[in-house]
Amino acid sequence: MNFMHSAGVRLCIREGLVKLPDEETVVMYDDNPKSRRMELPVCPEESIHLRPGQDAIVRIRYGQSNLQLDMGWERKNWVTKILYSARSWATAVKVVNVSDQNVRIDTRTAVARIVEYGQFLGQPGFVRPGQARYEEWQQLIHERTVSRQARMRAEQLGQILREVEPPCTQTQRYQLPTKLLVRPQPQAAGMKMVTFKKSRNQWI
C-alpha cells in the first residue's frame, strides 16, 4: 500500500525550484532549463544622510557571499567599498560621500549587488572588486574620507575657538567688595522703634 503524508513542500514557480522542509533545494523538471542566476541587491535598512567625506556601513543580509559573488555600485556622488570578514565573506558595504554636497540614500537604493560568478551585469556604474576601476574607488575614498583622528582634532579645535570667542551678550563687570554692605531697614520699622524708645523714656 502507498501512504502519502503532508511534507510541507514549498514551490517557487518564479525560480523553478522546490523547497523541502529541511531547506534542501530541488530543481523542478523543465525541458528548456532557464538561467537561474542569483542577483541580491544590498539596500540600507533606513535612509542614510551623508555629509561630504562622511561614510556609512550597510550590512549585507546574506551570510554565504564570497569574493566571486560581490559587485560594487557607483553613483555620481558616492562610491562603495566591500567589507569582508575573517572567512573572506562579504559582510557589509561601506558607502562614502565623495562629493561636495550632502547625499541622501533611501531604502530602495541598491548600494551593491550580489551576483554569481560569470553573471556580471554590463550596466554602467557596476564594477567587480579587484578591477582597476574598483581600485580607483578605493583611492578616491582614501582622498575624500576624513580619518577619525582628524575629526577629533577638528572637534577639539572648534571647542577651543568657541571658548575664546566673546559671549553673545555683554555682561557688566562689578568691582570687588571692600566692606560689608548693610541692608537698609524699612522706614515703617524705624518709626516704630523711635516711638517705642520715646514711650520708654517717658515711663522712666
**Share of helix among residues?**
10-25%
**In whole angstroms, how far apart are the ends?**
136 Å
Question: How does the helix and strand content classify structurally?
Answer: alpha+beta
Alpha plus pi helix count: 3
| Cα-atom radius of gyration | 37 Å
Basic shape:
elongated
Low-confidence stretches: 1-5, 63-70
Tell me, what is the CATH class of the domain at 36-146? Mainly Beta
Organism: Phytophthora megakarya
Protein name: Aspartic protease
What would the keywords be for this entry?
204 residues; alpha+beta; Deoxyuridine 5'-Triphosphate Nucleotidohydrolase, Chain A; four-stranded antiparallel β-sheet; three-stranded antiparallel β-sheet; 3 helices; 23% helix
Description:
- This is Aspartic protease.
- The protein is α+β, with helices and mostly antiparallel strands and 204 residues long.
- The chain is built from three helices and twelve strands, in the order ββββββββββββααα.
- It has helices at residues 132-144, 148-164, 187-203, and strands spanning 10-12, 17-19, 25-27, 39-42, 48-50, 55-59, 70-73, 78-84, 90-97, 103-105, 112-115, 126-127.
- The chain has a four-stranded antiparallel sheet with strand order 4-11-7-12, with no helix packed on it.
- A hairpin with a 5-residue loop joins strand 8 and strand 9 (90-97).
